[in-house]
Specification:
Shape of chain A: globular
Number of strands of chain A: 6
CATH topology of the largest domain in chain A: Arc Repressor Mutant, subunit A
Helix content of chain A: 25-40%
Bound molecules: manganese (II) ion, zinc ion
Number of helices of chain A: 4
Oligomer: homodimer
Structural class of chain A: alpha+beta
Strand order of the largest sheet of chain A: 1-3-2
Largest sheet of chain A: 3 strands, antiparallel
Radius of gyration of chain A: 17 Å
Distance between the termini of chain A: 46 Å
Chain lengths: 140, 140
DNA sequence: TGTTAAACTTAGAACGAGTCTAAAGATTGC
DNA sequence: GCAATCTTTAGACTCGTTCTAAGTTTAACA
């Protein structure tokens, strides 16, 4: 169930609407990642959230990210080995991944057509389709 | 440069043709994974290769998998968090991934149409496109 | 508003897939 | 044969992530 996050709605209300108790830590993290579409890793967030005093623990960062994913406020993006990215752009879209720099970019859903779905047995439901275009900047 | 691996060609010759010195360990692993299309993880291979005596070390398993990937004899498939699979089916195809069972299946390339490629700056070359369809067996 | 149970946060230990190290073993060219 | 190069190995190590157990906050409600 996707929910919109209009500007006038506070993070506090967004979290409540998802059944998440808006603790100080969750609101702080929410403000950082839910107010605009952004790609980031757990460690990037951990560093950023702790730049301006008021320490938030690693465990809480991971717990909160997991909770936000569970509540469809964030999605995980799997690219290279050992790298998990989070994405607060919940509209249907895909990604390109620069294998050199590790940079992640968006591809509009309209730019990739999934024509036929695989032969799905009728008890199998599709939970999502992930497309990652691996790119490399040509060596000059 | 994809090479075919006809039945009459021994693993030994396949490896040599790729510039790989066919050591006993590499040939043994090659026989297990290169003679038919198969999906497997490093630890699955490590266990299987060591079932029938003649121990092969973890380091060699990882080194060999990395070497085979580098030489385009295997590809990596990234699915769930912390799960790296290897695939000896080198024809263009995609995957579905059962998020419950962890099972991985093939989707013929023809079943998914990549219509438009993203706006690629001319110095950016596409190295590959990975499509993973996440599926879940409906709770009975 | 005080009491309490449930939910949450925390530091740090633990985990595990994957990599590295340094030494021993194999292969190759001369 | 001899030396140079390449390969394998055990086990230590790394690092992203998860777990644990204790303390803190929140929410329910008397
Ligand atoms: Mn991370
Ligand atoms: Mn594995
Ligand atoms: Zn995105
Ligand atoms: Zn496959």
């Amino acid at each position: 169930m996707r929910r919109s996050r209009p500007e006038h709605e506070s993070i506090d209300e967004t979290l409540r609407a998802c059944g998440i108790i808006p603790t100080a830590q969750r609101v702080r993290i929410g403000r950082m990642v839910l107010t605009r579409p952004t790609h980031f890793s757990a460690e990037q967030l951990y560093e950023r959230v702790n730049l301006a005093g008021n320490h938030v623990s690693k465990a809480t960062v991971y717990n909160t990210l997991g909770l936000f994913v569970e509540k469809d406020l964030l999605r995980r993006v799997l690219v290279g080995t050992g790298k998990v990215f989070y994405d607060s752009n919940m509209t249907a879209h895909h990604h390109f991944y620069d294998v050199e720099s590790g940079e992640l970019g968006d591809i509009d859903a309209g730019e990739i057509e999934i024509r036929a779905l695989p032969k799905t047995a009728d008890d199998v439901q599709i939970e999502g389709i992930d497309v990652v275009v691996r790119v490399r900047r040509a060596a000059s």
